[in-house]
Amino acid sequence: METLQPLDWGQHRFREDRSTLDATLTLKAAIQNTKAKDWITIMFDIKGAYDL
Q: What residue ranges of the chain have pLDDT lower than 70?
């Protein structure tokens, strides 16, 4: 199993001015674009939003 930290997603960076909903929808799209063949488990504590 591979564990990615929030800032390990290549060029993607943390940005505080994004909404939680925007970050969640962007994260959903990023996951759908992966080629994972197994389950993906995401655990995070939102204190801002991820710029994916």
A: 1-20, 35-52
